[in-house]
Fold this sequence. Notes:
The protein has 10 helices and 8 strands. The protein is α/β, with parallel strands linked by helices. Helix 2 runs parallel beside helix 3 (70-86) and helix 2 packs parallel to helix 10. It is globular and about 50 Å long.
Amino acid sequence: MPQPDLTEDPLGPLDPDFAARFRRDMRRPPCQLYLVSPLDTGGDFPDRLARALDAGPVAAFQFRVKEIDQHEAARLAEPLQRLCADRDVAFIVNDSVSLAKRLGADGVHLGQDDGDAMEARRLLGPEVQIGVTCHDSRHLAMEAGEAGADYVAFGAFYPTVTKEVRHRPDPSILGWWASMFELPSVAIGGIVPANAAPLVAAGADFLAVSAGVWDDPAGEAAAVAAFAKALEG
């Protein structure tokens, strides 16, 4: 079956004046930080994660590893999951419903090629948080919501070294989503403390950050503290 073309949203372009009209609904919870792991979570990474989680408010942590078997992934995940549980931070598994089920994770994040939110719900149960990558497509986000996702993720908004960028949405997609749906949105892609504010103002409910914390020259604790200030602003 041919894959759908994700480069153009079937809903067409947003009204170019929408961003100027958008005002964040103050009844909506404030934007929060959503940490995403680097690909290497061995060695001293548990200590780094603990420092990051203790440096400022973090809503969720996504465990994202590639090209290792599930037994090794579970071994690496378990100490990180304990750190998150001790601090009431949601532990989200990237890509793998089976690993999320094995770990009893708080949630799973699915890319467009990682399975269906409805099937993930059937396998993981009603309490698990399910997120879906929707790139720059309002249509994909609406489909994810209809399938039972708990949040949708848009991006990449800025250049990023974390993964190959094929989609560059305008920040106004965040405000459009917030004005239409209660389901939270996550902004992702190249976000650092210095460029976070426009995405918060545009309507993001969460900022998903990886290199912006783990590659910060001042260290992960300083980066999380800087994000806390940016989100307060």
